[in-house]
Amino acid sequence: MTTTTTNNNNTTNTTTITLTPGATVPSLPIVLRKDDSLVLATFSENQRTLTEVESSRMTGDYRECEVCFNPVEQTAFAHATTTHVRYSQLVQPDKSDAWELKLMFEVEEKNVVALSFSTLGSVLVTYAMMDGKRPEGNMAMYDVSTGNLLRRCVQARWPGMVWCSQEQYCVRPVQGFLHVMEGDLRKGESTVLAKLDLQLPQDKEMELSMSPSNMPILAMFKPFHKQTQGTLFIYRLPNLLEGPMYQVSFGRAESATLLWSGSGNHIALLVKCESDKSGKSYYGTVKFFLVDVGGRNLKEIKFPSGESVHDCQWSPAADHVMVVHGTMPRNKTTLYDKTGVALMTFGEAPRNVILWAPNGRFCVLGGTGNLAGDFVFYDLNPSSSTGKSIRNNNINNNNGVSNQNNLNINNINNNNNRGANASSSAVALMTGEFNEKSSVQMWAPDSHVFLCATIFTRLRIDNKLVFYKNNGEHLLTQKYPILYGAHWVQTQETNLYPLRPASPRKETDKPAKPQPYRPPHASAAAAALLRRPDSSAPKPAKPAGPPGANIVVTKKKKR
């Protein structure tokens, strides 16, 4: 175990815990929303079991609303039935290793469809659909420490409240205006510090996102309306009326996705247009930009014509962003640094989702929805060269795409990459793969176990949980008649979980090669006739003879 602290130069150091070989892996708690109850369960990697804690079961109809965890007290979470909102916390009675669920408070709130917390976890916000029978308001705010109602109001847009990281200010869209208020709602009636006219109709959705840094900075995207271009605005709160500190227009863009980096200094911006002027895409276009908030500049990452962006995610460990882009079903995946310099590409494959492990060392690239459900694990900071090593070679071809069959990740050659992490740009390791069609995929808090869930709201049959290691090894499949959701519970800080490299897979655990389809009652010989020609199979050799011999090839005459 290596322990470091924060020094006078504001350098933040982390604690790394390494699990000794053969040691027992702690069980991981997980919350399940089933057909008529919510229950706490524990997953044991060593025993490959999922055990429900019957004493923690809470009855009710949990189909409508997702569980929402407190961002500060991460073992506490809010959950809603069709009649009540409950706030619960995981506890360990009598200093034992077992976990139990303790109800902190319960309030009557009907038909709640969304929950959220303020950034310091002091206020719980509940949101129900607007109803004429609820004149007092459909959005309520509760004091988490006491369970007391702070205020209730009518709210048309969701999210209804957005706080800055230290809760100095909160922002709320109200009837075509944007209100900036004091963030501590427990002091009583908050004063509106600034009000901005959005000049948008109710059917136009804007995007709001607050910086995770200590600076109270708000990013807002307003879509194209009438003759006003779609525009990104960046404000420093509470000074809305003084104008934005930075703004840039994007023509007829109808919507955008704002993704802040972990440092809060950069934004990954996905700008969406419903029409494609080139005519190559029926579904419109998605353009990718990187915004340097402090430097007040923007860089467009350009892709070949016809390519679109399918997913984009920041690394939790560094200001590196990974993007899946291309034309379905063969997409490329590229890792960029904060300035937009490409660090590596992961070849072509049918992918549309990126999932980073909480520790930022591992990531999963996969295909969901209409794609086949293939998932591949990568270690972007391998500690050793054991296993199936993936080296980065300079790209000299035209498209810069690596051969996926050779598992080769390419490092894009550039001389401007002086600030990039050398370990990230030098080598990566493919640690495993698996195939699983599922609705939801998520990492466990320990960054070692990966969960695939098929839930009732996506598929009404074959609801199940499937657990894998980050080497692709299958651990457990648990089936349910009805399953609405599964939610891991983080019981400690990410860096306090033992740091474990991916285990080598056994030969018997590797996925079998796909076999040719054989109809019922058909023989193997008939199935062989249906097999497609294998491009990797050796082809018949051309006629050959001793040096100097004349080769005669008889050709059939055309009739």
UniProtKB/TrEMBL annotation:
<feature type="region of interest" description="Disordered">
    <location>
        <begin position="498"/>
        <end position="559"/>
    </location>
</feature>
<dbReference type="GO" id="GO:0043022">
    <property type="term" value="F:ribosome binding"/>
</dbReference>
<feature type="compositionally biased region" description="Low complexity">
    <location>
        <begin position="520"/>
        <end position="539"/>
    </location>
</feature>
<feature type="domain" description="Translation initiation factor beta propellor-like">
    <location>
        <begin position="250"/>
        <end position="384"/>
    </location>
</feature>
<dbReference type="GO" id="GO:0022627">
    <property type="term" value="C:cytosolic small ribosomal subunit"/>
</dbReference>
<keyword id="KW-0396">Initiation factor</keyword>
<dbReference type="Pfam" id="PF08662">
    <property type="entry name" value="eIF2A"/>
</dbReference>
<protein>
    <submittedName>
        <fullName>Translation initiation factor 2A</fullName>
    </submittedName>
</protein>
<dbReference type="GO" id="GO:0000049">
    <property type="term" value="F:tRNA binding"/>
</dbReference>
<dbReference type="GO" id="GO:0003743">
    <property type="term" value="F:translation initiation factor activity"/>
</dbReference>
<dbReference type="InterPro" id="IPR013979">
    <property type="entry name" value="TIF_beta_prop-like"/>
</dbReference>
<dbReference type="InterPro" id="IPR011387">
    <property type="entry name" value="TIF2A"/>
</dbReference>
<keyword id="KW-0648">Protein biosynthesis</keyword>
<keyword id="KW-0853">WD repeat</keyword>
<feature type="domain" description="Translation initiation factor beta propellor-like">
    <location>
        <begin position="435"/>
        <end position="484"/>
    </location>
</feature>
<dbReference type="GO" id="GO:0003729">
    <property type="term" value="F:mRNA binding"/>
</dbReference>
<keyword id="KW-0677">Repeat</keyword>
